[in-house]
């Protein structure tokens, strides 16, 4: 059994999703939540909330591996910078705890979860809930985090079937 | 005596500069270097090198406060994202060690160090070396890091003269 932490970083809210996968790639829902970064204090305090919040979840749930969504940067450089800072803090929380971290493009996540790289956000939310047997509407950031965790589970299982060392899946740039 | 850590974050190289300032605002050079992030491994390993490298310097030199340059984002969103990630990791290293961190715009740094917000990079390097009594040409990223530390020293001394709590200088932004 491998526990996977999925992260969908954002400068206002960071989605976190944790699943367990067995040797065949079958997934079980463990936890999901959105860490809200806004509130008191300046930019450093906001990053600290992410670093501490994500760190506390890692310490509580003890995942074996982490997966993070490659963010969409077709926005302004200012938004990209803020998003990058949140990503940098999220990755810091993960590497500080020695978790291997893989990165997946939004298109790969949609392909793995819905079956088409051009899927809508609502389809991702629907499929994530269906795959993990969750009822009710999932918060969007948490759904994306669970989706990237499911993508990593899928890639791991495929790599295993093909006899490729899991390590190679991890070191994807 | 207050020890200030200045940081000029970059996705390939991060400048670090450490100075001591006395109650009158007079500065003494302690250390400077550029942390090189490129090399082995993917993006997460690169951020880890920054997180670990900066953390080791903080543990060795034990600064009291940190100052970071607000980066110029008039580039592509992709560059801004990478720069943001480096900034996020640098700020993580600092807040993990409970250092208060202030942020200064490039224009404020030039104004404090050279006396004009539109100063050239070479002028900043020259003035930083002169203010700290350093001979020889300073590496550009380290010079920028020392410049932001000197700016923070200047702002602190001014705040003190005006009777404003140093805390207010810290919580800028």
UniProtKB/TrEMBL annotation, chains A, B:
Its cofactor is Mg(2+). Mg(2+) 1 binds at residues 8, 141. SUPFAM superfamilies: Ribonuclease H-like. The active site is at residues 8, 69, 141. Mg(2+) 2 binds at residue 69. Its EC number is 3.1.21.10. One of its GO terms (molecular function) is DNA binding. It is an enzyme of class 3 (hydrolase). Its main location: cytoplasm. InterPro entries: RNaseH-like_sf, RNaseH_sf, X-over_junc_endoDNase_Mg_BS, X-over_junc_endoDNase_RuvC. One of its GO terms (cellular component) is Holliday junction resolvase complex. Keywords: Cytoplasm, DNA damage, DNA recombination, DNA repair, DNA-binding, Endonuclease, Hydrolase, Magnesium, Metal-binding, Nuclease. GO terms for biological process: DNA recombination; DNA repair. It catalyses: Endonucleolytic cleavage at a junction such as a reciprocal single-stranded crossover between two homologous DNA duplexes (Holliday junction). Homodimer which binds Holliday junction (HJ) DNA. The HJ becomes 2-fold symmetrical on binding to RuvC with unstacked arms; it has a different conformation from HJ DNA in complex with RuvA. In the full resolvosome a probable DNA-RuvA(4)-RuvB(12)-RuvC(2) complex forms which resolves the HJ. Belongs to the RuvC family. This is Crossover junction endodeoxyribonuclease RuvC. The gene is ruvC.
């Amino acid at each position: 059994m491998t526990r996977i932490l999925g992260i969908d970083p954002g400068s206002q809210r960071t989605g976190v999703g944790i699943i367990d996968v067995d040797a065949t790639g079958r997934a079980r829902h463990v936890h999901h939540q959105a860490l809200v970064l806004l509130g008191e204090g300046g930019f450093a305090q906001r990053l600290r909330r992410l670093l501490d919040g994500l760190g506390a979840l890692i310490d509580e749930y003890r995942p074996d591996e982490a997966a993070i969504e490659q963010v969409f940067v077709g926005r302004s450089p200012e938004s990209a910078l803020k998003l990058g800072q949140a990503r940098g803090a999220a990755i810091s929380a993960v590497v500080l705890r020695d978790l291997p971290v893989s990165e997946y493009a939004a298109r790969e996540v949609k392909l793995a979860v819905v079956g088409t790289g051009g899927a809508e956000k609502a389809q991702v939310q629907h499929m994530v809930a269906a795959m993990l047997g969750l009822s009710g509407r999932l918060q969007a950031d948490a759904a994306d985090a669970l989706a990237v965790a499911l993508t990593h589970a899928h890639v791991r299982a495929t790599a295993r079937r093909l006899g490729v060392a899991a390590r190679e899946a991890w070191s994807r740039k």
